Amino acid sequence: MSLSILNDPELLSLREKHFSRLIKLFDGKDDSPNSFVLMGINGAMPAVLGDCPEVKVSDALNELAQHKDLLKDEITFRPLTVEFDIYGVHFTDKIFGAEVYTVDNSWQVKTLDNEPGALKKPDLKNCPTWILARDLAKEFVKSNVKVPLFGLPTISSALNVSVNLYGLEILLSMMTDPEATNRDLKIINDVLCEIHKWYLTNVPLEQLQPVISWERTQPPGFGQLCGCTTQLVSPDMYNEFIAPLDEKILSLYPNGGMIHLCGSHTQHIPTWRNMKPLRAVQLNDAAAEDLQFYFDGLRDDQILYVNTCPGMTTEKIMEITGGKRVVIVTPEINLNIIKL
């Protein structure tokens, strides 16, 4: 199938129609009779050192072209997305020189031998992992297709990366050696910011999306960071060591952005409520089961992306939110449920 279909004006118009409504939702002006439901088409492909970016991008786009008609869904937003899973959640760990390996087809990482306080900033210009990621993005832009969105690799967050690199030691060092902790966290966050800035400069903003782009699609100009490990720290520790770093990343984007949560994080709701560039909170698994706390505790302009799960069904999401301030992410869509 010719890739010209991925520049089809009809498909582009349909995508923009959904984006228009999503923007209204973020602005508190959505007047649709239905709640917003999202389930995009995943064009993700694993990528490792040695892969040819031209082939990877071509394969991903050809796969997406096979599913183009799914974007024509008038109710559910089904964006076509291209994303390259480069070492999974350990993409940034690999950039920092950690040993990344697979166990049962799942990426794992070996913690560094040194203690916090001596982390070296990687030379991005000569880092093979970053060169691969950069070349994949360049090849996507070169393809000049306008309908698909481009999802980032898992750039993650300073806390996530530091725990991957040091394990428990980074948490202990927050209490025993805060100076060393702050030093390494700043180095990590500076590298994350540099990576985000590159993408903001080199990928069209109207196509740039966060990781897991098919389930976390935001309006253009919004970023994302991973908050998985915030469940390991107290509100005081998060406020002292991490919150300013997270806010700095989100502030890089014209409209702020999202934090991904998947565990027990409700102790940080007051901090996130006051974090101005935080405009969306993505909840899945255990975090989704705490939806009521987030809906009641966050600002009215903070949108909740909720992945359905056995403990948080579509029915329960609607019961809690009434379809307001929420993006329901589910493969099982019952229009009798999502209509208000």
Beta-strand residue fraction: 15-25%
Biggest β-sheet: strands ordered side by side in the sheet: 3-1-13-12-11-10-9
Amino-to-carboxy terminus distance: 40 Å
Q: Mind describing the biggest β-sheet?
A: 7 strands, parallel
Helix-strand string: HEEHEEHEEHEHHHEEHEHEHEHEH
Gross morphology is globular
In the predicted model, the low-confidence regions spanning at least 5 consecutive residues are 334-340
Helix content: 25-40%
Number of helices: 12
Mean pLDDT across all amino acids: 95
Nearest-angstrom radius of gyration? Answer: 20 Å
Topology, number of strands: 13
> Structural class, judged by helices and strands?
alpha/beta
Oligomer: single chain
Structural summary, described in words:
The longest helix is centred in the middle third of the chain and has 25 residues, at 178-202. β12, α11 and β13 form a beta-alpha-beta unit. The radius of gyration is 20 Å and the shape is globular. Strands 3-1-13-12-11-10-9 form a 7-stranded parallel beta sheet, sandwiched between helices. It contains 12 helices and 13 strands. 46% of the residues are buried. It has helices spanning 9-26, 53-65, 91-95, 128-143, 158-166, 168-176, 178-202, 235-250, 269-273, 291-297, 314-321, 335-338, and strands spanning 36-38, 41-47, 76-77, 80-86, 99-103, 106-110, 149-151, 208-209, 223-226, 257-261, 278-283, 303-307, 326-329. α6 (168-176) crosses α7 (178-202) and α7 (178-202) runs parallel beside α8 (235-250). The N and C termini lie far apart (40 Å). With 340 residues, it is of the alpha/beta class.
SSE topology:
Layout: H1 9-26, E1 36-38, E2 41-47, H2 53-65, E3 76-77, E4 80-86, H3 91-95, E5 99-103, E6 106-110, H4 128-143, E7 149-151, H5 158-166, H6 168-176, H7 178-202, E8 208-209, E9 223-226, H8 235-250, E10 257-261, H9 269-273, E11 278-283, H10 291-297, E12 303-307, H11 314-321, E13 326-329, H12 335-338
Parallel strand pairs: 1-3, 1-13, 2-4, 4-7, 7-8, 9-10, 10-11, 11-12, 12-13
Antiparallel strand pairs: 5-6
Helix pairs in contact: 2-4, 5-7, 6-7, 7-8
